[in-house]
Amino acid sequence: MRRVLEEEGALLFTTEMLATCALDLGCLDRLGGKEPFLTFFEPPSLDERVVNQSSVLSAFSDPTYQLEQWLEEHPGLWRGWTIPAEVKAEIRQRLDQANITERVLMPGLDGLADWLRRYYSPGAIRYGEGYGGATMAE
Fold it and tell me: Strand runs (DSSP E) across 29-118, as ranges?
């Protein structure tokens, strides 16, 4: 699998690249042997939501293996970030300014409804001194 990634100069698999290593899930299971491994791949662009989210999916070679267990066993391979509550509103505002909203990430009625709910909820979004978005309060 590493050879395929190196030949392509890639960091993660496309479904086509993955198919050259494992034709089906059973083949993927057998590739791991006794040591389960985690692989990342780009899903096919089946709909607008997958395209807009630039999705990356992961799969274990052993379907019974848990991600938490793998992370504990490989502490140097991952990082986590905690965003303090006091900066979440500012981050949301900057994402909104860049047009990274629920409407873009989840095209369709679900995303539109989530965005409208957040944008028009009275006092739901605080930015520093005042309130962000439109509000029907007061």
Answer: 38-42, 57-60
